[in-house]
């Protein structure tokens, strides 16, 4: 019998996959890639330019060799083609994962990109679906700010552990802290607080992911002449907040109604209802360099 590569998957001996890059490739083995999760709402692929810009930043940070003026339009085209193949639906979630192709251990054999695009229909508008959240602090795995905290990495173990911890406590989500001790984000959302008519959110250099919804919420608030300050947030800031809300690309703006181990008591209908209304009316600016994506 010839000796070759053999794979055992859950007790079943398999021949090497026709697509080993997905079954046993670098993304599967090492989380060697980045991803974007994009909302399709009322037939519009929301904030796609912003997603492609962050995707480009992520690929540059992890050293994947790609040509932006070729690769990014290709991703845009393939997202549209995938949605078209899925069929018409008013609401959908698109996940674009770009990974480093080829083999190698920690040292890659090459740096070329591969991609996987998934499109899933949603039953209803997710901006209307998510109820107010109960959250608490997850202290066990702090996030150390670095260039890697600026990307949507395929390696998300700290956030997985935070989500499991939240479930064990009966919370909807957990707030993550940085190695410096600041509150930076939740497991799946960016964090905002409102105090004295000013909106505060942690800075990206403090370790939070530069969320696409975060970026656009800041744009909207500044267009409406609401003061927005990026600053490190502490547990005490949560105690004195008038409102706390979370944002992400799929859920939009989510109210926080409870934070464990704080005295937080939110005001009703101060900022969040207006922000949700403004978000629905908002049209993002065109990209600075449309030829690049």
Structure in words:
The protein is of the alpha+beta class. The chain is 30% helix and 29% strand. The chain has nine helices and 14 strands. The chain has helices at residues 20-23, 26-30, 48-62, 68-86, 126-129, 157-169, 212-223, 235-240, 272-281; strands spanning 7-9, 12-14, 33-41, 44-45, 91-100, 113-121, 133-143, 173-178, 183-186, 190-195, 198-201, 228-230, 243-248, 252-259. Strands 9-8-7-14-13-10-11-12 form an eight-stranded mixed sheet. It has a four-stranded antiparallel sheet with strand order 4-3-5-6. Strand 3 and strand 4 (44-45) form a beta hairpin. It is globular. The N and C termini lie far apart (51 Å). The model has no long low-confidence stretch (mean pLDDT 91).
Question: Could you give the topology of this structure?
Answer:
Layout: E1 7-9, E2 12-14, H1 20-23, H2 26-30, E3 33-41, E4 44-45, H3 48-62, H4 68-86, E5 91-100, E6 113-121, H5 126-129, E7 133-143, H6 157-169, E8 173-178, E9 183-186, E10 190-195, E11 198-201, H7 212-223, E12 228-230, H8 235-240, E13 243-248, E14 252-259, H9 272-281
Parallel strand pairs: 7-8, 7-14, 11-12
Antiparallel strand pairs: 1-2, 3-4, 3-5, 5-6, 8-9, 10-11, 10-13, 13-14
Properties at a glance:
globular; 9 helices; 293 residues; 30% helix; alpha+beta
- Strand percentage: 25-35%
Helical fraction equals 25-40%
Q: Assembly type of the shown chains?
A: single chain
Judged by helices, strands and strand pairing, the structural class is alpha+beta
For the largest sheet, list the strands in their spatial order.
9-8-7-14-13-10-11-12
Output the number of helix runs. 9
Strand/helix succession: EEHHEEHHEEHEHEEEEHEHEEH
Give the overall silhouette. globular
């Amino acid at each position: 019998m010839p000796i070759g590569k053999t794979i055992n998957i859950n007790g079943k001996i398999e021949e090497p996959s026709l697509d080993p890059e997905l079954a046993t490739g670098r993304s599967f083995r090492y989380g060697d890639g980045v991803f974007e999760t994009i909302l399709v709402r009322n037939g519009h692929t929301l904030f796609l330019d912003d997603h492609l810009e962050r995707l480009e930043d992520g690929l540059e940070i992890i050293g994947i060799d790609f040509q932006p003026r070729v690769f990014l339009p290709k991703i845009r085209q393939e997202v549209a083609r995938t949605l078209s193949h899925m069929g018409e639906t008013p609401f959908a979630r698109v996940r674009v994962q770009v990974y480093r192709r080829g083999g190698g251990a920690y040292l890659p054999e090459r740096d070329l990109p591969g991609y996987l695009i998934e499109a899933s229909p949603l039953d209803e508008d997710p901006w209307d679906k998510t109820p107010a959240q109960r959250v608490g602090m997850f202290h066990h795995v702090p996030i150390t700010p670095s260039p890697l905290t600026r990307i949507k990495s395929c390696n998300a173990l700290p956030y997985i552990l935070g989500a499991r911890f939240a479930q064990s406590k009966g919370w909807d989500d957990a707030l993550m802290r940085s190695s410096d001790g600041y509150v930076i984000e939740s497991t799946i959302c960016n964090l905002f607080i409102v105090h004295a008519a000013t909106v505060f959110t942690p800075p990206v250099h403090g370790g939070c992911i530069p969320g696409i919804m975060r970026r656009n919420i800041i744009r909207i608030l500044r267009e409406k002449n609401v003061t927005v300050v990026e600053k490190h947030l502490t547990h005490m800031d949560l105690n004195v907040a008038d409102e706390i809300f979370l944002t992400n690309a799929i859920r939009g703006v989510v109210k926080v109604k409870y934070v464990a181990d704080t005295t937080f008591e939110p005001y009703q209908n101060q900022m969040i209802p207006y922000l949700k209304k403004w978000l629905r009316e908002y049209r993002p600016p065109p990209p600075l360099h449309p030829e690049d994506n």
